[in-house]
Amino acid sequence: MDPLLNHQPLPAHPPLPKPVGHGRRTVPRSFRDLTPGDHFNPRTFFREMVWHALKTSPTGSVKIPNFPHLKDDQLALTWIGHASFLVQFEGLNAIIDPNFANWLFLLKRLKRPGLRVKDLPPIDLVLLTHAHFDHFHKPTLRKIPSPKIAVMPWGCAPLAQSLGFGRIVELKWWESFGHDDWKVTLVPAEHWGARTLADKHRGWGGFVLEYRGRTVYHAGDSAYFPGFHEIGQRLKPELALLPIGAYHPESFRKVHMGPDQAVQAFHDLQAKWLVPMHHGTFKLSFEALDEPARWMESLSREHRLEHRVRMMEEGIPERF
Ligand SMILES: [Zn+2]
Ligand SMILES: [Zn+2]
Q: Which numbered ligand comes closest to the C-alpha of 278?
């Protein structure tokens, strides 16, 4: 739960790019309501993240997923919401940062998960990018159907004991673990890994999952950084699952990126598809909940990326 941990105001950064055309979008419209230095007094936090969410009814519908029958070289991606994805290949089911929580402590989920945890297929591989509560959600992990192997960054394995995994694997950046036809590599990210203020020993990162020539990159949480270029060069991901929310106030861009930077990261990676994530589910920051998606759609038109940016709906599997 990043904002709780990132409560030190940082020096001002340059303002965001000016909004371009496209009617009602203002970026970020929440600027008007804020004054610098007021970001993280407890009252503002409570009003913006907790109280506002409490009064808001969640949107989105829980679906009975219709998982496609896959051929040899196909993959299906199902967005569960926030940073959670099911990645399916013919012969392998992987889940990344699963989180079906309706509450993260005081923070209410504002968009329902796209499916029920009980409707998941048996999971061969669980990938956990870091120990923040919105990504490493123990109550969800306990419910994952027959999880065989969990892969996570260094220092996170103690958190995964007694969650039902057959095997737990810790990786450092650029280390890989594989079996049969699949291989997963932990890659760097510009973020941090502490689950509480005290634990400084836990790692973080993103994952590149390869299976029979198909390659999916989940960036975890990350600020924009030169590592995207290196990940693109070394592992050539086809699909890039990139976070686009929790970028306001500006100090959050030390650890998260906005849609503008996700587009740049996508170019750096030279991937084929950009799948935006980490938006619209929990209010972790001060931009409006629907702003990242609207800004992303506008940027995708502006950069003529409509066929490469895949805005997914929770609970609807898409074939790639
Ligand atoms: Zn995080
Ligand atoms: Zn996060």
A: 2
The CATH number assigned to the domain with range 34-319 reads: 3.60.15.10
pTM above 0.85, yes or no: yes
Q: How far is the CA of 241 from the centre of ligand 2 (A)?
A: 13
Distance, CA of 178 to CA of 215 (rounded, Å): 13
Instruction: Tell me the per-residue pLDDT of 8-42, one tens digit each, with 9 for 90 and over.
Output: 333 333 344 443 334 333 444 443 333 334 455 67
Q: What is the CA radius of gyration of the chain?
A: 18
Q: How many CB atoms lie within 10 A of CB 253?
A: 20
Q: Distance between CA 253 and CA 45 in Å, rounded?
A: 18
CA 2 to ligand 2 center in whole angstroms: 6
Q: Classify each residue of 40-69 as buried b or exposed e, where b means 16 or more C-beta atoms within 10 Å of its C-beta.
A: beeeebeebbeeebeeeeeebeebebeeee
User: For residue 237, is the peptide bond before it cis, meaning its omega torsion is within 30 degrees of 0?
Assistant: no
